[in-house]
C-alpha cells in the first residue's frame, strides 16, 4: 500500500520493439540485463544497439540507456539523455516518461524546483499518470522544506542589507510578498495532490475490504448449504 509519507520513485520504462534484427537483439539483451539489475552490462548493450543505427530510430535504446545510467546513480548522464529525448522525440508517451524520469534525476540532486517543473510537464502530456502526480507532491513538499531551511539564512542577510541601505527596503518587501504568494500556491497544489493520493488509497482499501467481505459471505453460504 502506498502511503502519503513514503518516498517512492517510479522509473518509467519504455522497451520498444525494433525492426532490424541486430538492433533488436541488442535492445532485447539490454532489457533482459536491466531487469536482472545488471545495469552496467545493460548500458553497454544499449550503446551497442545505438551504434547500429544506420537510419534506425534508436530512441528506445537511448532512453533505456538513460535509465541504466540512472540506476547506476550517474544522474548527470541520465539527465542529459532524457533532455535529448525530450528535444528530439515526437512520441508523446515517450516524452512524458522522459520528463518523469528527468524529474527523478533533479530530485536525486536535490534540485526540487526543476523536479517540480519536469513532473508538471509530464502531467501535461499524460494527466492520468498517478505515479508522476505522487512524485510531484513529494517534490513540492521537499521544495517547501528547502525554502523554509534557506529562509532563516536569507532573512539574516536581508536584515543586514536593510540596515546598510534603507532605500531598498520597499523593493525587498515586494519581492518577499511575491515569494510568499508563490509558496502559498505551491503549498495548495501539494496539499491537493496529497489529498488525492489519500483518497486513492482509501478507495483501494475499501475495495479490498469489500472483496474480503464477499469472500466471507460466500464461505458462510457454502457452509450453510
UniProtKB/TrEMBL annotation:
The keyword Cell membrane does not apply. Residues 1-18 form the signal peptide. Pfam families: TPR_1 (PF00515), TPR_8 (PF13181). The keyword Ribosomal protein does not apply. Residues 212-225 have a biased composition (Basic residues). Residues 200-211 have a biased composition (Basic and acidic residues). InterPro entries: TPR-like_helical_dom_sf, TPR_rpt. PROSITE patterns: TPR (PS50005), TPR_REGION (PS50293). TPR repeats lie at residues 59-92, 96-129. Keywords: Signal, TPR repeat. It comes from the Bacteria. Residues 145-225 are annotated as: Disordered. This is Tetratricopeptide repeat protein.
Amino acid at each position: 500500500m502506498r502511503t502519503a509519507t513514503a518516498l517512492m520513485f517510479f522509473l518509467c520504462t519504455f522497451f520498444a520493439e525494433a525492426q532490424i534484427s541486430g538492433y533488436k537483439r541488442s535492445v532485447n539483451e539490454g532489457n533482459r540485463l536491466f531487469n536482472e539489475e545488471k545495469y552496467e552490462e545493460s548500458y553497454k548493450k544499449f550503446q551497442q544497439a545505438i551504434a547500429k543505427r544506420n537510419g534506425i530510430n534508436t530512441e528506445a535504446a537511448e532512453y533505456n540507456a538513460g535509465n541504466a545510467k540512472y540506476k547506476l546513480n550517474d544522474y548527470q548522464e541520465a539527465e542529459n539523455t532524457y533532455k535529448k529525448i525530450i528535444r528530439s522525440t515526437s512520441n508523446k508517451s515517450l516524452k512524458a516518461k522522459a520528463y518523469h524520469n528527468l524529474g527523478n534525476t533533479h530530485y536525486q540532486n536535490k534540485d526540487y524546483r526543476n523536479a517540480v517543473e519536469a513532473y508538471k510537464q509530464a502531467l501535461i502530456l499524460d494527466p492520468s499518470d498517478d505515479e508522476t502526480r505522487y512524485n510531484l507532491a513529494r517534490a513540492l513538499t521537499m521544495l517547501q522544506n528547502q525554502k523554509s531551511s534557506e529562509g532563516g539564512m536569507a532573512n539574516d542577510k536581508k536584515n543586514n542589507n536593510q540596515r546598510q541601505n534603507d532605500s531598498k527596503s520597499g523593493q525587498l518587501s515586494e519581492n518577499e510578498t511575491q515569494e510568499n504568494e508563490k509558496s502559498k500556491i505551491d503549498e495548495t497544489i501539494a496539499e491537493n495532490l496529497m489529498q488525492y493520493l489519500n483518497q486513492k488509497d482509501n478507495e483501494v482499501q475499501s475495495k479490498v475490504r469489500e472483496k474480503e467481505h464477499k469472500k466471507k459471505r460466500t464461505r458462510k453460504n457454502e457452509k450453510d448449504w
